[in-house]
Amino acid sequence: MIKVEGNAKINLTLDILGKRPDGYHEVAMVMQSIGLSDTVEMEKTDGPIELTINVPWLKADEKNLAWRAAALIKEEYKLAGGVRMKLTKRIPVAAGLAGGSTDAAAVLRGMKELYALDISEERLCELGSQLGSDIPFCLLGGTMLSTGRGEVLKRLPDLPATWVVLAKPRISVSTAWAYQNYDAQGAKEHPDNERIQQEIARGDRKAVAGLLCNVLESVTIKKYDVISQYKQMMMQQGAMASMMSGSGPTVFGLAESKETADRIATHMREHTDAYVYVIRTTGKVQ
C-alpha cells in the first residue's frame, strides 16, 4: 500500500493565443502549485482497477481521470495485475484548481512506484498529456510557464512561499463553456508573461502580484458576478492581489503574511457561503 499526494494549482497568468488546427486553444500561462492536496491510497492487486472516492456523487468508473490514468499505465506496460485505489478529495471539483488532473498525475506516479516501472519524467508527462493538458504540470509542480495546449512546460524558479486564500463559490463553471465564450468576446487585457517571469526570478512577490492576469476572468464574471464581489472583498481585507483561477469559479488572494491571510479568510467565511481555504504556495514535486 502506498499513499500519493497531489497538489492543486492556481494560475498567476492565463492567456489564450488562438485556436489550433486540432481544436484545442494555444495558451500561455504561469502556473503555481499550492498546498491543498488530494490523497490516493494505492494497493497492487491481481484483479481489475478499483476506485472508491470520498465524494459519493463523483463517478468512480472509467470516466474518472484517476481510473483512466491507472488504465493507461496498465495497457501501456502490459501489466497483468490491477490496482485498488481510495481517493480522498479535498480540492473542490470543477473549480479551476486542476483537481481531476492532480488526481490523474498522482495515480501515474503511484503506478510507476507500485509496479517499479522504469519510466522517465518526460515519458510520464507524454502519457499524462494524452489524458489532459494540465496533467504534465501536475506531475512536476512548482512554478512553470505552460504553453502549447498546456503541455509544453518551462521550469521557473519557485515563487517565494506566499500565503494564498481560496474562496470557491457554490457554483461550477464548465471549462469548455468558458473557452467558447472567450472565442466570441476576446479580452481587452492580456498578461505580460515575460515580465512576470522576470519578477518571479527576482523573487519579488509584490511585483508578481501586480502582474496577475487571466483572460477568462471577464468571460466568467459576465455570468457570475459573485467572482467580482469575492475579488473586491479580498482586496478590501488587504490582499496584495486577487484573481480567478483557470476557468473559475475559485477566486484566490495573495497575502503578505499569515495574519493577513487569516483575516481575509475570516471575512470571507463570515460574509459569504464560499468554501474557504488558507494555504501556501509549494515547490516542485520531489
From TrEMBL:
Pathway: Isoprenoid biosynthesis; isopentenyl diphosphate biosynthesis via DXP pathway; isopentenyl diphosphate from 1-deoxy-D-xylulose 5-phosphate: step 3/6. It is an enzyme of class 2 (transferase). It catalyses: 4-CDP-2-C-methyl-D-erythritol + ATP = 4-CDP-2-C-methyl-D-erythritol 2-phosphate + ADP + H(+). The active site is at residues 9, 134. ATP binds at residues 92-102. GO terms for molecular function: 4-(cytidine 5'-diphospho)-2-C-methyl-D-erythritol kinase activity; ATP binding. Residues 64-142 form the GHMP kinase N-terminal domain. It comes from the Bacteria. It holds the Pfam family GHMP_kinases_N. The keyword Transferase applies. Belongs to the GHMP kinase family. IspE subfamily. This is 4-diphosphocytidyl-2-C-methyl-D-erythritol kinase. It comes from Selenomonas ruminantium. The gene is ispE.
